[in-house]
Amino acid sequence: MRPVTYLYDDLGLLDSANESVRRLLSDLVIMTPETAFDDEPIVLDAMPSTDHGDDFMDRIIAMATDIPVVFTMSALVGERADIESALAEPLSRATLALTRLRREHGAFAGDYDWDSDDNGLMVNWSTPEHLVRLHVPDPREGTDFILVAKAPGTDREWRSLADLAAPEENID
């Protein structure tokens, strides 16, 4: 079953958000009583530090799981009042790219497995035609992560927050 990523508007900003902000957040399911879920989610409720790589790695690993993930609005925009500008910053763009990948890529409708050993963490989502693979190597390798998305005619790879924050043409 495809994992879902939710947004909890702890700051009350969605009520007055313009259409471009709503479009930027369209890959997230807004939490309401009707969107309740049975499983215990992973809740990401704080803006990670941009100078502490482990904080962002927590987001990447959470988004590769088969567990519902809940972002609070404050985790996406921090304490910024200008939500549109905050969502345009690299950290927010990278997070939204992960959300879009999780919602749209065909692999997330397939099988999920993970493994961990001396070489690091490996997470796979796959169907016969699609693959999303996250490899978080041993820190001694000097690479934070390698995220690969494959689909017929399209292969993508990301190795940094900057890679994820760059504009995407197609993630299928």
The CATH fourth-level homologous superfamily: alpha-Amylases
What does the oligomeric state look like here?
A: single chain
Please tell me the overall pLDDT: 88
Main sheet?
5 strands, antiparallel
What top-tier CATH class fits best?
Mainly Beta
The end-to-end span amounts to 17 Å
How many domains, in number, for the residues? 1
Number of strands: 9
Share of helix among residues?
A: 25-40%
Radius of gyration: 16 Å
| Structural class by sheet pairing and helices | alpha/beta
Unreliable residue runs: none
Figure out the total of helices.
6
| Secondary-structure arrangement, i.e. CATH architecture | Single Sheet
Q: How large a portion of the residues is in β-strands, by DSSP E?
A: 25-35%
CATH T-level fold name: Glycosyl hydrolase fold
What is the helix/strand order? EHEEHEHHHEEEEEH
Write out the strand line-up for the largest beta sheet, numbering strands in chain order. 5-6-7-8-9
Topology:
Blueprint: E1 5-8, H1 19-24, E2 29-30, E3 42-44, H2 53-63, E4 69-72, H3 73-77, H4 83-87, H5 90-104, E5 111-117, E6 120-126, E7 131-137, E8 146-151, E9 154-158, H6 161-165
Parallel strand pairs: 1-2, 1-4, 3-4
Antiparallel strand pairs: 5-6, 6-7, 7-8, 8-9
What does this structure look like?
By secondary structure, the chain is of the alpha/beta class. Helices cover 27% and strands 26% of the residues. The chain has helices spanning 19-24, 53-63, 73-77, 83-87, 90-104, 161-165; strands spanning 5-8, 29-30, 42-44, 69-72, 111-117, 120-126, 131-137, 146-151, 154-158. Strands 5-6-7-8-9 form a 5-stranded antiparallel β-sheet. A 4-stranded parallel β-sheet has the order 2-1-4-3. Helix 2 runs parallel beside helix 5. The radius of gyration is 16 Å and the shape is globular. The chain starts with a strand and ends in a 7-residue tail after the last helix.
